[in-house]
């Protein structure tokens, strides 16, 4: 083990070239001590660190990530990855990419699974992991997470678009926030082409309600302008449900039975699109869409 004074000095030298969030990471927790230097990645550099999942963070406009390793003799190493996502809404968004685990009261919406703790707070997304899960490492992971959450100091606001979900897609529904067609297709495949014209300027909420294998899906998308929403509505109808292509009022709701045997519904209100997938009946699709559009009009 390295002397504590040497470690502190090395961390101070590392911090001179590190992004600001490095100062939120503790030097020790539960008998584990930080081992400098930190690893820092920005922009395309994320692919040098986590090649397989790098695109996820890029899709949420991450600014930088600081990775710090902690060691304790005779115990598994711990690693903290602290992402500056630039905004609270994107910190929340990247957190929603993986929602498996048990709830832990750490940060905002803390989740723990098999040695990995994930949470978000303010504009930061945090992952604390142990190389192997033991009772001792589990306690240290919790302590590290609590120290980081405390250092951040304040909660972030959830995306306003979540407030526009209808009541039947709140509560027990699985909710994800996104901008990218890549992220959308990962959770619910729509098309190989970007038929919804999603990009960094759009916001979307994907909500799934029901049991596995029979989940009803709601996708709300907000565009920068009504004109862009109208173009996206037409693009979606032409590619996904061409038999419902608008004739007359372009924002009029459409409901069709798709090739998979389920019902799909689509409608537009001003800058918003509301889409229902996997409905069991025409009535369910139409009713769910009507509730979503009514919520958009009332908020």
Q: Which helices and strands appear, and what pairs or packs with what?
A:
Elements: H1 4-15, E1 28-29, E2 32-42, H2 46-49, H3 54-59, E3 64-71, E4 78-84, H4 88-95, E5 102-103, E6 108-113, E7 116-121, E8 124-130, H5 135-152, E9 174-178, H6 181-187, E10 203-209, E11 216-222, H7 226-240, E12 254-257, E13 263-269, E14 272-279, H8 282-298
Antiparallel strand pairs: 1-2, 2-3, 3-4, 4-8, 5-6, 6-7, 7-8, 9-10, 10-11, 11-14, 12-13, 13-14
Describe the 3D structure.
- The chain has 299 residues and is α+β, with helices and mostly antiparallel strands.
- It has two domains: 4-152, 3-Layer(aba) Sandwich (Protein Transport Mog1p, Chain A), CATH 3.40.1000; 160-298, no CATH class.
- Helices cover 29% and strands 29% of the residues.
- The protein has helices spanning 4-15, 46-49, 54-59, 88-95, 135-152, 181-187, 226-240, 282-298; strands spanning 28-29, 32-42, 64-71, 78-84, 102-103, 108-113, 116-121, 124-130, 174-178, 203-209, 216-222, 254-257, 263-269, 272-279.
- The chain has an eight-stranded antiparallel sheet with strand order 1-2-3-4-8-7-6-5, with helices on both faces.
- The longest helix is centred in the middle third of the chain and has 18 residues, at 135-152.
- Residues 1-16 have low confidence and may be disordered.
Main sheet?
8 strands, antiparallel
Query: In the CATH scheme, what's the topology name of the largest domain?
Result: Protein Transport Mog1p, Chain A
Distance between the termini: 58 Å
Our Rg estimate from Cα atoms comes to 22 Å
Counting DSSP H or I runs of 4 or more residues, the number of helices is 8
- The CATH class of the largest domain turns out to be Alpha Beta
- Secondary-structure-based class equals alpha+beta
- Helix percentage: 25-40%
Number of strands: 14
**How confident overall, as mean pLDDT?**
90
Trace the largest sheet across and list its strands. 1-2-3-4-8-7-6-5
**H/E element order:** HEEHHEEHEEEEHEHEEHEEEH
Ranges where pLDDT stays below 50 over 5 or more residues in a row are 1-16
Shape: elongated
């Amino acid at each position: 083990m390295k002397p504590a004074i040497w470690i502190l000095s090395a961390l101070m030298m590392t911090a001179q070239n590190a992004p600001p969030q490095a100062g939120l990471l503790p030097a020790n927790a539960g008998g584990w001590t930080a081992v400098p230097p930190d690893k820092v990645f920005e922009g395309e550099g994320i692919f040098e660190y986590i090649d397989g999942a790098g695109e996820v963070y890029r899709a949420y406009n991450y600014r930088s990530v600081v990775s710090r390793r902690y060691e304790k003799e005779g115990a598994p190493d711990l690693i903290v990855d602290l992402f500056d996502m630039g905004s609270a809404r994107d910190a929340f968004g990247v957190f929603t990419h993986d929602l498996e685990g048990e709830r832990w009261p750490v940060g905002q919406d803390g989740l723990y699974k098999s040695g990995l703790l994930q949470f978000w707070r303010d504009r930061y997304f945090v992952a604390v992991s142990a190389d192997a899960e033991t009772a001792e490492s589990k306690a240290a992971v919790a302590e590290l997470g609590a120290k980081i959450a405390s250092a951040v100091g304040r909660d972030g606001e959830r995306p306003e678009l979540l407030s526009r979900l209808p009541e039947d897609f709140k509560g027990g529904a699985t909710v994800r926030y996104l901008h990218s067609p890549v992220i959308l297709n990962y959770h619910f495949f729509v098309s190989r082409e970007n038929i919804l014209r999603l990009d960094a300027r759009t916001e979307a909420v994907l909500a799934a309600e029901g049991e596995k294998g029979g989940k009803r899906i709601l996708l709300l998308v907000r565009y920068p302008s009504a004109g862009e929403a109208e173009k996206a509505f037409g693009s979606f109808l032409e590619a996904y449900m061409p038999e419902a292509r608008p004739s007359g009022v372009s924002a009029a709701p459409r409901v069709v039975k798709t090739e998979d045997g389920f019902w799909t519904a689509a409608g537009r209100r001003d800058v918003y699109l509301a889409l229902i997938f996997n409905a069991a009946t025409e009535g369910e699709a139409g009713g769910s869409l009507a509730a979503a559009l009514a919520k958009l009009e009332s908020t």
